[in-house]
Amino acid sequence: MGAIEVEYDNQTGYVTKITDLERTDGRNTAWVREYADELVSYGHGIDVLARTFEPSYGAGYPDDQSTSTTSISMPLTEDRQSSDDAEESLVTPGIEDARLTALATALGGENLEWRPDGGLVFDLDEVAVKAEIKDGGTRVAVHVMLAPASVTEVEEWVAAQPEPVATLLEVETGELDEAFPCLMFERSADFVTWGLDAVLEDIAAFSAAWWGDELTEPPGDPRDMTPSSAWLLVGDEASYPDAHELERRSAVARLGVFDAMWTTAKQAVVGDLYLVYFTAPRRAVHFVARAASNAFYADDIEVAAEGVVANQQQWTYLTPLIEIQPIPLSAIQAANDGHLVMRGRSGKFLRPEVITALNFVALNPDDQAAVDRIVATPVGLADLPDPAQLTFDDWRSIAGGALPLENHVSQYLVEPLLERLLSRRFETRREHRAGRGFVDFAVFRDGAPSMAIEVKLAMPTPAHGDWSRAKEVRQLSRYMTDLDVAGMLIDANRILLFARGSANPYREIERRRASAEDLATVRAHLEQA
User: Fold this and answer.
1) Does residue 16 register a pLDDT over 80?
2) Cis peptide before 219 (omega within 30 of 0)
3) Which of 29, 321, 409, 458 supports an S-S bond with 266, CB 3.0-4.6 Å?
4) What is the number of structural domains in the chain?
5) Confidence (pLDDT) at 465
6) Is residue 382 part of a domain?
7) Which residues span the domain enclosing 81?
8) Which one is predicted more confidently, 125 or 21?
9) 3-class DSSP state of 220
10) What is the rounded CA–CA span in Å between residue 273 and residue 226?
11) Per the domain annotation, does 7 fall within a domain?
12) Are residues 136 and 163 both part of a single domain?
């Protein structure tokens, strides 16, 4: 046997101090003290500690003292895993309560009530929430119960709903012929409050839908952006969507989820306009959509196609496809000065006048408002201006699709930028040797290299957020190291600024939205390097 001395607050019963007493059997009491310290950190009381180890201790809280001390005797083992009884005692109702309380608080719960089995129920706006520690003591299961209705009504409603983003939508039966739409999720008992924002969005959206309220679309919808470029995406019968798929993607888009994907051009950016064309036997545009992401490269996504197509593709997420009355290829070619090269990959740049010349009519008249929301004439310049006469507005307005080659980015974006920002102290050299390679642009100040600039047609933003792992950055970093200078990466859509020795940019500037302040930052970067 062994003992610890516990000091507790008379008013609250909370443990405030724990001291080891003599170990009467010479065995280790460290694990007991560690566990008791957990109770202190969670704000639990002497009664919880006593209930855990079932000792005999001095009961009662004297009114004339602020704290009291009692000794608790308990059986000790060599370590925490020595017996099944010791293992089971590690998870107590008190600790479970603290974790569930933290969860309820993070969700904004009210009217907390503890169930006899140790679970917690509470209110969250107009829904009831039940949370409990699952068997094994390591997982918390949470059920968000919407208002009850008949089993048939709930089952039909749940079957018609889109997939939630962060929860699982189920039917939970009650008494008699009663059932509840239920949003369920789990968390580790050690991380109960992780990632609850998406959960709360699910609760708000599905609760509103259950009550028949109109769902409010999340802000930042790509369909409300002014497109910079328009593109013709290409598919065949294997990629033609069915009615069920179209309906599902439209439903989840109300929650701000855009999960449709298509192959596209490197230069495509979020908000761009897409016309989706299908090859023979259709040979027509059947859908319109907006880009819901910048283009990104992937080689692990299977392309839906009738023939063999390489998986090394540029991809884009799309807003829901809206079906229109077919626009034949001949009409698109006529609007594009009588020709349009269809060979090659998906993602053909369409000039703004092509969009203006075409007539977009929804196949279903009820979808005309959705078509009108999507179809807008791109504002990007399709005709490349004379670089010598280029203004800042021109430079900012050039459509990414009007720059089909990397050399165009150098000629119409990089060279005019350097010419206007650098003073006479600086000179630029094309294809300058740096180590075993050649950097696209090297800037020299007073005869010494001061900047390495690498040019790309388009660079995908790394999903992990770490630019140092991107191949374009690794290439630039080698040149920066060889020349001992700072660096810049420039593509058709943006500028990345790198400090000397850094493999991650400290500033990213979107060309289309660049301000005078942004250009001043670029000038300072060039001059201070």
Assistant:
1) no
2) no
3) 458
4) 4
5) 67
6) no
7) 2-89
8) 125
9) coil
10) 9
11) yes
12) yes
Residue 470 structure tokens: 């991107």
Q: Per the domain annotation, does 273 fall within a domain? A: yes
| Overall average pLDDT of the 166-181 stretch | 87
Closest CA to 7 of 15, 87, 504: 15
Residue 235 and residue 356 in one domain:
yes
Q: In what order do the strands lie in the sheet with 260-263?
A: 260-263, 313-318, 296-298
Locate tokens 């459509």: which residue? 399
Question: Alpha-carbon distance 454 to 483, whole Å?
Answer: 13
CB 396 within 8 A of CB 370: no
State the CATH number of the domain containing residue 151: 3.30.1460
Regarding whether 251 and 191 lie in a shared domain, the answer is no
Asked if 183 and 144 count as a contact pair (C-beta separation under 8 A), the reply is yes
355-400: pLDDT as tens digits:
999 999 999 999 999 999 999 999 999 999 999 898 999 999 999 9
Q: What length is written for the chain? A: 529
User: Nearest Cα to 89, choosing from 140, 36, 129, 130?
Assistant: 36
Q: Are 415 and 408 in contact (CB under 8 A)?
A: no
397, burial (CB in 10 Å: exposed 0-12, middle 13-18, buried 19+): middle
Domain boundary among 210, 240, 255: 210
Does 496 fall in a domain? Answer: yes
Q: How many other C-beta atoms lie within 10 A of the C-beta of residue 518?
A: 16
pLDDT tens-digit map of 328-360 = 999 999 999 888 888 888 999 999 999 999 999
Q: Distance between CA atoms of 342 and 348, rounded to whole angstroms? A: 8
Using an 8 Å Cβ cutoff, are 201 and 166 in contact? yes
Token duo for residue 517: 């302040």
Which amino acid is present at 94?
A: G
Paired sense of beta strands 273-278 and 230-235, if any: parallel
- What is residue 66's predicted lDDT score, i.e. its pLDDT? 45
Cβ-contact 407, 256 below 8 angstroms:
no
Task: Say how far apart CA 496 and CA 502 lie, in whole Å.
Answer: 12
Shared domain for 363 and 227, answered yes or no, is: yes
Amino acid code (one letter) for 131? A
Strand runs labelled E in 189-304? 230-235, 260-263, 273-278, 284-290, 296-298
Whole-prediction pTM? 0.61
Please give the Cα distance from 128 to 182 (Å, whole number): 10
**Nearest 10 degrees: CA dihedral of 94, 100, 106, 111?**
-90
CA dist., res. 95 & res. 97, Å (int):
5
